[in-house]
Write a structure and sequence with these properties.
Layout: H1 2-5, H2 10-17, E1 22-23, E2 30-31, H3 32-54, H4 63-82, H5 90-106, H6 114-120, H7 135-168, H8 178-215, H9 219-256
Antiparallel strand pairs: 1-2
Helix pairs in contact: 3-5, 4-5, 5-9, 7-8, 7-9, 8-9
Length: 259
């Protein structure tokens, strides 16, 4: 009877699972769960890929080497098809984004109560296990891409070339059109990191919300609905990682081209 009286309502359960583990206040609030999961997932994933690369042979590859080579080949083909400049950074950047975003998205496939329950034994009562459902992380990643885009614009085109492109495209060199061109360019560039971050965040947040709603159902119904949604969600997490990677390559390619 006491357990039933203290059982959370549906709204309390949803809010609990969507609340980050934080420290600090205001602008300096740190989402510790987002930081911890993203760092651990990245370290484990790329550590395993590094070990596979260290053990690579020129003969018949083992399962680990074959899997890594498959991912490398897939990302390399996307870079060759999309990126038209020359830079040794774009390939590793694309690989890092695709693998890291995919693995962070894949945390969504864990049962929603597993990590909160285990961490609750140690006094941690709030914990979001999917970093990409945190807008702070998706915006941080998109702003990093934006910073690289601006950097390559200046590096490849020079200050004069980049300024010429901003002032005279897309409507030409008439002096009266320069302010219009600049405004359009600012809107275009600002929209890139916003759309990049919100697309990833929105899709992953919606997917996590569906898992939480399924978890509110009786246990004998959860598997009936949860299993098909988890299988379909594998496509979503892969597609979102792929889109983030491809758009990053496109932005880097635009930064290397003159318009």
């Amino acid at each position: 009877m006491a357990a039933a009286e203290h059982a959370p309502s549906s709204s309390e359960y949803i809010v609990h699972h969507l609340t980050n583990l934080t420290v600090g206040q205001g602008f300096w609030t740190w989402h510790l769960d987002t930081l911890a999961v993203s760092i651990i997932v990245g370290a484990v994933t790329f550590g395993l890929m590094y070990l596979a690369a260290q053990r690579a042979t020129s003969g018949v590859p083992g399962p680990g080497q074959a899997f890594v080579e498959m991912i490398l080949g897939f990302v390399d083909s996307q870079v060759k098809d999309t990126f038209h400049g020359r830079s040794a950074l774009i390939g590793p950047l694309a690989l890092t984004i695709f693998v890291w975003v995919f693995m962070m998205n894949a945390m969504d496939l864990l049962p929603v109560d597993i990590l909160p329950m285990v961490l609750g034994w140690f006094g941690i009562h709030y914990f979001k296990s999917v970093p990409t459902t945190d807008m702070n992380l998706t915006f941080a990643m998109s702003l990093s891409v934006f910073a690289l885009m601006i950097f390559f614009n200046f590096k490849v085109k020079g200050v004069g070339g980049f300024a010429h492109e901003v002032m005279y495209a897309p409507f030409g060199k008439h002096p009266l059109l320069i302010p219009v061109n600049v405004v359009f360019r600012v809107i275009e560039d600002v929209a890139k990191p916003i759309s990049l971050s919100l697309r990833l965040f929105g899709n992953m947040y919606a997917g996590e919300m569906i898992f939480i709603l399924i978890a509110l159902l009786p246990w004998y119904v959860q598997w009936l609905l949860g299993a098909p949604w988890a299988i379909f969600h594998i496509l979503i997490i892969t597609l979102q990682a792929f889109i983030f990677m491809v758009l990053t390559i496109v932005y880097m390619s635009l930064a290397h081209e003159s318009h």
